[in-house]
């Protein structure tokens, strides 16, 4: 029953805590922790701990077990502190290092410490990309897990909208993992681009990927971009935007972006329509945007004012007259630099794959 199970849990917890009491006392010593953080040489750090603080490296195995135990009990902040201590001492070559990285990320996500969780995502990515894990299939599996776990961070961190684009679209290893293992992630990449006005330059690359994967994965969000930027089918885009609202509303990661998504999707329809037509009927625009004519006119007025578009409204005729909109030289430069960066990384990865050693020992994941 629950009472006997609780007694077992408490007893086991007590045994684990006693086995790492020395480590806990070190963690509670501010001077010792500060000195540890300042020491860069792992050998000197181990000497300091063993000679001055009665520490033994063997204690760390029990510390990892205790951290996992605390994690399962829901004590995520305690878990992160234990795993942080472990990572201060042990090198990345240690047998438990990858498991500890995953455990640390899981705990930070559940504790909603998004800044620290982002740091852990980057550490995991660097570790996975460093070619110290087993064979190519195993590395692909690790990247696939990281892609999914990172969604929690990217859709809660202030810089997440930019970082998800950089990682999923412009890191060839991760784009390849998405295309191979989890094309459904394109939904989140597409949504991030749609709500991020400052990254409109990435649309060209995103749409290309969506087209390549359209035979394996489609949803209203990816189809919205296809209708708008490949087929220039504004009626189809309008219909897909309605479907997108249902998808976003029912998606765990996207629901908080619902209003922003709809606003930016309408803006994309408006901008694309205006590139094709010099003089546009407000009534026609209202129809394309799924809005009433008077609401659409007010929306367009605010858009012209806030976005500083080169456009005028003729209220008598009910027209929007567009001026010239030359491409920004800065934006052109950014696009070219991003393209060169992608090509350079692709070449680097090709060379790495040819030099990479195979048939290494597999690594298991214990955090879930």
- Low-confidence residue ranges: 359-365
| Count of structural domains | 2
Element string (H = helix, E = strand): HHHHHHHHHHHHHHHHEHHEEH
Mean pLDDT: 84
Main sheet attributes: strand count, strand direction, barrel closure: 3 strands, antiparallel
Query: What assembly state would you assign to the polypeptide chains in this entry?
Result: single chain
Order of the strands making up the biggest sheet? 1-3-2
DSSP E strands, number: 3
Shape from CA axes? elongated
> Nearest-angstrom radius of gyration?
26 Å
Q: If you had to describe this structure to a student in words, what would you say it looks like?
A:
The protein has helices at residues 2-19, 21-27, 30-38, 42-52, 59-72, 76-89, 97-110, 114-129, 136-154, 160-170, 172-181, 186-195, 203-213, 220-229, 234-249, 258-276, 282-288, 293-307, 329-355; strands spanning 279-281, 311-314, 319-322. The protein is mostly helical and 368 residues long. It has two domains: 1-111, no CATH class; 114-273, no CATH class. Strands 1-3-2 form a three-stranded antiparallel beta sheet. Strand 2 (311-314) and strand 3 form a beta hairpin. Helix 1 (2-19) runs antiparallel to helix 5, helix 5 packs antiparallel against helix 6 (76-89) and helix 9 runs antiparallel to helix 10. The protein is elongated and about 85 Å long. Mean pLDDT is 84; it is low at 359-365.
């Amino acid at each position: 029953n629950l009472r006997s199970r609780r007694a077992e849990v408490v007893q086991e917890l007590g045994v684990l805590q006693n086995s790492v009491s020395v480590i806990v006392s070190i963690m509670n010593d501010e001077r010792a922790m500060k000195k540890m953080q300042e020491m860069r040489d792992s050998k000197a750090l181990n000497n300091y701990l063993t000679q001055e603080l009665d520490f033994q490296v063997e204690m760390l195995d029990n510390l990892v077990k205790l951290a996992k135990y605390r994690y399962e009990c829901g004590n995520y902040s305690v878990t992160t502190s234990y795993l942080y201590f472990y990572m201060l001492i042990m090198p990345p070559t240690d047998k438990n290092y990858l498991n500890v990285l995953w455990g640390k990320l899981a705990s930070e996500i559940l504790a909603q410490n998004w800044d620290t969780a982002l740091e852990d995502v980057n550490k995991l990515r660097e570790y996975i990309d460093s070619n110290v894990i087993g064979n190519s299939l195993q590395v692909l599996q690790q990247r696939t897990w990281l892609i999914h776990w990172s969604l929690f961070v990217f859709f809660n961190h202030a810089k997440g909208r930019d970082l998800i684009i950089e990682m999923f679209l412009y890191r060839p290893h991760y784009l390849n993992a998405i295309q191979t293992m989890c094309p459904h992630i394109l939904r989140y990449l597409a949504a991030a681009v749609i709500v991020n006005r400052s990254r409109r330059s990435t649309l060209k690359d995103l749409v290309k990927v969506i087209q390549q994967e359209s035979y394996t994965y489609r949803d209203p969000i990816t189809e919205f971009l296809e209708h708008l930027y490949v087929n220039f089918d504004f009626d189809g885009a309008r219909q897909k935007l309605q479907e997108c609202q249902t998808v976003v509303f029912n998606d765990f990661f996207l629901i908080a972006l619902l209003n922003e998504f709809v606003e930016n999707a309408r803006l994309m329809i408006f901008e694309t329509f205006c590139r094709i037509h010099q003089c546009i009927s407000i009534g026609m625009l209202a129809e394309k945007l799924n809005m009433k004519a008077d609401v659409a006119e007010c929306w367009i007025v605010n858009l012209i004012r806030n976005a500083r578009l080169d456009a005028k409204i003729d209220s008598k005729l009910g027209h929007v007259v567009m001026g010239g909109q030359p491409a920004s030289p800065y934006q052109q430069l950014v696009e070219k630099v991003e393209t060169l960066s992608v090509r350079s990384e692709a070449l680097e990865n090709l060379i790495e794959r040819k030099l990479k050693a195979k048939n290494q020992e597999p690594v298991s994941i214990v955090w879930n």
